[in-house]
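Open question from group meeting: does this chain pack into something compact, or does most of it stay loose? Before anyone orders reagents, we agreed to write out a predicted structure and look at it together. Recording both the input and the output here so the notebook holds the full record.
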Amino acid sequence: MINLLMPVPSLLTLMEQLAIRLSPQAGKSLVISRKRARGTWFRCASFRFSAGVSLLIWLCGCATPQTQALLTSHSAQLLPQVELGEIPFYPQEIHQCGPASLAMALNAGGAKVTPQDLTPQLYLPGRDGSLQVEMLAATRRNGLLAYELAPQLDDLLVEVAAGSPVVVLQNLALSWYPLWHYAVVVGYDLKRGEIILRSGLEQRQVLPLTTFEHTWERAGYWAMLALPPGQVPRTATEAGYVAAAVALEKFIPSEKAEAAYAAALERWPRNLTARIGTGNAAYAQGNVLRAEKSYQQATLDHPDSPIAFNNLAQTLADQQRYPEALAAANRAVSLGGTEQAAAQDTLEQIKIKSTGIWKETE
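Structure tokens returned:
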């Protein structure tokens, strides 16, 4: 019987010894971190899921409410069985679960990268791991939209059923003595109560959903998608997707940014940020007419938006339609708000252009 009053390091030593006895290969590469998942750093685990690791999970076992709810009543979007067999596999090197997992997801999304390409972007040598924020940032740097899923097992499997692999963070040990690990969910079988992952050295790791939920819950239910611009997750929220598109915009060409915002408008046609975003992207491409159309629609949907009227005024002035431009600019100024100074400047510039007087700048 384990003495629960024994010092923490001794308890971890005992568990490591048990893991080694049950699976020598696992024990040799077991890496334990003494840090938390969020707000700090962690080491990636590098081993095959074994009876030893299952024992660590059992030692702090708890209920699995999401699995029970899922198997009892799940989303109508879920097929009973799905496996994305075409998702590439990169076996991880030690502490490299972040680059390996993200490379699989990025390749599935159309970005041709390897774990070695991602290591400089993700891996922190002094910390032996990769932060979630860096996983999201590296996705954007490689031209794909990074979307964090809600902490719901049903949502995770809905995305897999839609054809998207999901990067997940797991804690394969204890909540107070974690062993962090990134993996990629590529399938599930509801009848068998199983989930399928690309994980560590295993191309096809099959776990009970209950076991997976234990490990995922202790990592804060963190999961992300890496999608091409213009593809909206099945489970996306309006605010979540638009925020992801805004974060991606500066890393991709304007035509791809326009596609990302246009996809948002297909699902949420009155979203102001997406409507302004499509206009800005069209304007950046030199398509003033398409930009004007977007801004005009924004003023109709949101007549109290000074940004919509200001940007519309600029596109009208570019076409030398000065009476219309002045009317839009005056409306932007009258609406006030934090952008009033910028709107006033736009108005003054249009007045100068409309009278044929150009202000000289030093």
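Observations to bring back to the group:
The radius of gyration is 26 Å.
Residues 15-227 form a domain with the Cathepsin B; Chain A fold (CATH 3.90.70.10).
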